[in-house]
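Deliverable D5.2: sample structural annotation.
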Amino acid sequence: MAWFVLSFLIVYSAMHAVVLRGVYPLLTGHPFLPALAGLWMAAMVVSPILVRLLDGAGHEQTARAVAWIGYGWMGLLFLAFCLFAILQALDLLALALGRALPALSGLTLRTATSAAACLLVTSAVGIYGFFEAANLRVETVRLTTEKLPPGIDELRIAQVSDLHLGLVHRDEALAPVISAVRELEPDLLVASGDIVDAQMDHLEALTALWQRLDLPLGKFAVTGNHEYYAGLEQGLDFLVRSGFTVLRNEAVTVADTLVVAGVDDPAGSRTPDDAAVLGPADTGTLFTVLLKHRPWVSETATGLFDLQLSGHTHRGQIFPFHFFVRKAYPYFAGLYPLSNGAHLYVSRGTGTWGPPMRVLAPPEVTLFVIARP
């Protein structure tokens, strides 16, 4: 944990240094602005740690205020860092050209005008990102199967993922999700991990919101990595009190209608064996849904499930981090056909982690309509 904190501080400080260097042309000539900007950025570097300390000491409201400021700033900083990193790389290229070609010496992109333009773009995109994070969308996916039992022509399964309920996101974030799910009238609700975040002392009232969803085939959930970060027992207790059946490396047959299986996130201890979990279940005759937080596909299990539902990627959450997330998770977002007639769906996520903003990755509730051909 200490190494993680140290690594975070080093990387986050370096990102602030790039941005501070980028805005410096706007600060020069003022007696106090450079120092004030440096102090503000130093405070923002330690703000995520300060949130944990304040919350642990029982200063809930202060911790929540610092969290909104600190994480909101984090999103803006990510955007500004990308712009200023590109600008400074181009400036280094201009410097090299100036040394090679004397006629171009003195050429620089580090000007007050370029700095102001970067801040303007950052502000505009950041404001849009706050609005996009609140623009919950419903995605509908239709699949056909021969595995529906007699008398059932259609199954409706709703998926939520990556809500990250905690100190920042509470009832004001969950209530629209509950309303959206109720309007879809699903038979079954599944939650594919990271429903809670690291702060778990503020979620008691949210269980009542979840309990409003009384669905014919129930509610099922699996652990994500943040359930472990939050404290596994607390996370499981919250999910159970909210009416979820938490599937931990097990498969269940639901009302002789379908099989729902779930595996633990490997943040717990080890990578789960999907095939071993699915093997004993009646996957050959009933439509089978596998809940797995991270969009990793086990090739030995693809003949044992019909639809894997995952999350975790947030579709990058804030562009341009899409590119980095896609490198780590080729199954990035949306529906993917797999071998043996199976499919994988990767949710963009229903909430946000860290910065309460999204850019080109709107939050979603997903409805799967499973019907006969």
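Annotation notes: The chain is about 45% helix and 15% strand. The radius of gyration is 24 Å.
The annotation will be released with the project's public dataset once the embargo ends.
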